[in-house]
Every structure is written in C-alpha cells, then in structure tokens.
Design brief:
Layout (H helix, E strand, L loop, with lengths): L1 E10 L4 H13 L6 E15 L5 H10 L8 E7 L17 E6 L21 E12 L4 H12 L16 E5 L13
Antiparallel strand pairs: 1-2, 1-3, 2-5, 4-5, 4-6
Amino acid sequence: MIGWTQILVTLRNADPTALTAEGALRDSLGFGDRLARVERRILWELGGPETGEIEPVLLALRRSGELWNPNKEAAAIRRSGEEAALRPPVPGEAAPLWTLAWDPDRDLARTPLALRPHAPHGWRLARGVLWGLSWRKGSPDEQSAWTEEAVLCAGPRRGLLVHPHLEEHRRIRPDDPAPWLPVEE
C-alpha cells in the first residue's frame, strides 16, 4: 500500500506567470470580463510505503529549498484523506475550476538530491502545475466549457495553458483523493 503527501507551492507575492496568462486570456483570446482570475500552483506528490516515515522526508525537503523557497513561496502540506487547501474562498467570486497539467516524460521521474538520503526505497516524487480559473459570469456548465477552452491549446488563438502534444491534463476538485498525478510503478 502506498501513502501520499501533496505539497502545494504558491508564490507569496503576485505570480507573474499567472498574471501574464490572465492578461492573454482576457485580451488576446477573447474571454474579456468573464474571466475574474487566473491562479497557478506547483504540485509535488510524494508517495511511498505507508510504513515509511514522512516527517524526516518533509523536514529534509523544507531545509533543502529544492522544491520551494520559503523566502518567496508558501507550501501547504496535504496528506492522504485530507481536502486540498488550494485557496480560501474570495467573497463574491466563484471558486476556481482547477486543471492539473504535467509533462509525462519529465515530471514523473524527478528525485531531488535532498530526498535521496532520507526516503526509504520505493518512494517517488512527481510534479505538476495546477491552473485555477475563476469566472465572473455564466452558469457552472458555461464556466466549465470556458475553462476547457481557455486551458487547452488548440490553435494560435485557442487555449493557452496546456499544450496537448507535450502535456497531459485533467480537471481537479479539492476533495479528489490523492494521488492526482498518474502512478508509475
């Protein structure tokens, strides 16, 4: 059996990548004032035998700065069975619709140097990018369709955040059980 821990990394200040994507979606791709906000999180998933101790691994990662820099980024830890703390609700704004993107050839194989001496054999680490889109208008069905249209690159003026030939993607809800990224045995 495998136990999972997720580390959600967020910039403490404004995220220039998310702000640029928001401007492009709003101005160049025609989403205009329907789009309220674009957010980005880096997701790390650490999994291994349930008998393994996760606390020494998390402490090593916290100290190393390999996965996040505590001076400029905040990290929220979520263990198996907990709801993800993607962000607190913003008054007057619908909850974001989250899409997880990952590069199957690169993101599923990374093992940081800090992890190697502390993690028992059989642990793995995977990386993905979470994109959250919040909408000012529209029904839930319309917002879902707009999110899919905005996320998936399908041409020069269609989609922006996920390149379907290079990345995999799927929709995520905060209460979805871990792991969110595919498991490679």
